[in-house]
Amino acid sequence: MFKLPINGATTYNVIFIRIFITMQRFFAACLISIIALHISPRAFSTHLEDHISNYDETASAPSLVPHVALLLPLQSSSFGQAADVVRQGFAAAATREQTLPTTIRVYSTTDDPLDILITYHQALDAGAILVVGPLTRDGVSALASSSVIAVPTLTLNTADGDIIAPPNLYLFGLQMENEASLSAEFAKAENRPHAVIIHDGSPLSLRLQAAFADKWLQSDAYATAESIPYYNEPSVLKQFRRQTADKNTVIFLTLDAKKSRILRPYLNPGTPVYATSQVYTGKDNSLYNHDLNDIRFVDMPWLLQPDHPAVMAYRHADNLGSMDMERLYALGIDAFRLMARMLQAYTVDEISLDGVTGYIHFTPPNQFIREAIPAKFHNGRVLRLNSQ
């Protein structure tokens, strides 16, 4: 037991004890901070298989190490689940492909564009030689508007508006605008000059409308197009039969599966109907798909072509829960494969890939275009079509 003397030294011993206690609290606080840093979402993401030797999950390192940075919004309440599924696909490809000449680090962010920019800087400061990400449209737009693209960066989405991407920034992702353009190319084979585009006024719907119309009217002086808004009201729906009855017409739906299913019976049955992958919610929904009969759409080999060589090469994840998550998992696989080719290629122009998301090729100045494959609904089943 510690006893204080009863002489004049008592004051000094009390001071000594207070200093000692203060130092204990200081060191305890430091220890807590260190532990918190090492278990924070930014420092580590979900554990992967131990045998992936070229996949390093540490998001911050004390020394400058050349590496590939995978930048994902794993801390976002809105996009965290999607980001983790992309990470799983990326990791699945890492286990299958040849060992890379460098390590990979996962950088966990929120969906705040400022946080994404700060983390991008941290990756560069830590020695990143190539960055994969961001995943969100806002994050890509913020990065494209900045002047910090010091290394090749493969984004997993596109930028908003007419932002001119700086050198070293390459766009890739699951943009449905590419699907709309591809649908217009397929629809041209019908040899019908007029397109009726049906939209619901949402930002995505209007972007799909613009992409389809641009491709449809391109290099064809006789092509025409009109836009009709969708409303789930009987009096409005009944008018669609007359508006789509012309024998020179094709129809393009910029709608999701639910709205397309409501609208389909009101469209002229003899008029070809095209749509994007958002109408396809799974091959097991035969009753649901029956209501979409004869609608043609495009989607990725991962979902439509199980005998595709790349699809057979990669393991599927369990319990992803939806087709959208399946698509994001496939995006992670092809993002890894593109990244590996970017590390090896002399120029990006020479990169092409028969991927699980479609045939991918580089289109100047800065975009990797993904060509999906065509299919159609027939008696509740999905039939894959030959590319025209």
Automatic annotation (TrEMBL):
GO terms for biological process: peptidoglycan biosynthetic process. GO terms for cellular component: periplasmic side of cell outer membrane. GO terms for molecular function: enzyme regulator activity. It comes from the Bacteria. The keyword Transcription regulation does not apply. Keywords: Membrane. Signal peptide: none annotated. This is Penicillin-binding protein activator.
